[in-house]
Amino acid sequence: MGLTTERPDDLLRCPMRRREFLSTVGGAAMAAAIGHPASAAGTADPFCFCVAADPHCNDGPGKGMEDLGTGADRLMRVFEHIGALPAADRLDFLIIAGDLHLKGFLPLLPRFPLPVHVTAGNHESSVEDRKALRAAFPQDFVHDGKPADYYSFVHKGVRFVSACTAGLGGEHIGTFTSENIQPRGQCEWLEGELSAPEARKVLFTHIPAERDGADREMHLGRNDSRWFNDLVRRTRPEAAFFGHLHQPTAPYRLGGTEVWQVRSCCWNFNGAPIGFLHVRVGPSGLAVREIITGAPLKSDPGGGSGPVSKQG
Question: The whole model's pTM is what?
Answer without folding.
Answer: 0.85
